[in-house]
Amino acid sequence: MPDSANKEIHDAILTVLVRDWDPFRLKCDTINGSQYARFVAPIYQMLAGTRSKEELADCTV
Q1: Exposed, middle or buried by CB within 10 Å (0-12, 13-18, 19+), for 38?
Q2: With the C-alpha atoms ordered 44, 57, 53, 18, is the resulting torsion angle positive or negative?
Q3: N or C: which end of the chain has fewer CB within 10 A?
Q4: How confident is the model at residue 12, as a pLDDT?
């Protein structure tokens, strides 16, 4: 997958975390420097089938 496609997917996941889901109730529209950035790769890996839901849950605790 080209880097531009990876960035687009990364940005889309981060946008959902920050603006739609916001599990930490940060009420922040700022995507850059988001507290949720560390969750993007594990979520992408789960969606791509290379990480289980359980492994994702472990990284969010």
Answers
A1: exposed
A2: negative
A3: C
A4: 92
Contacts 24+ apart (CB under 8 A), 4-10: 9/44, 10/40, 10/44
pTM score, whole prediction: 0.68
| The total number of structural domains that make up the chain | 1
Decide which of 33 and 54 is more confident.
54
The domain in which residue 19 lies consists of: 3-60
pLDDT of residue 29: 59
Say if CB 42 and CB 56 are below 8 A apart.
Answer: yes
3-state secondary structure 1-61: CCHHHHHHHHHHHHHHHHHHHCCCCCCCCCCCCCCCHHHHHHHHHHHHCCCCHHHHHHHHC
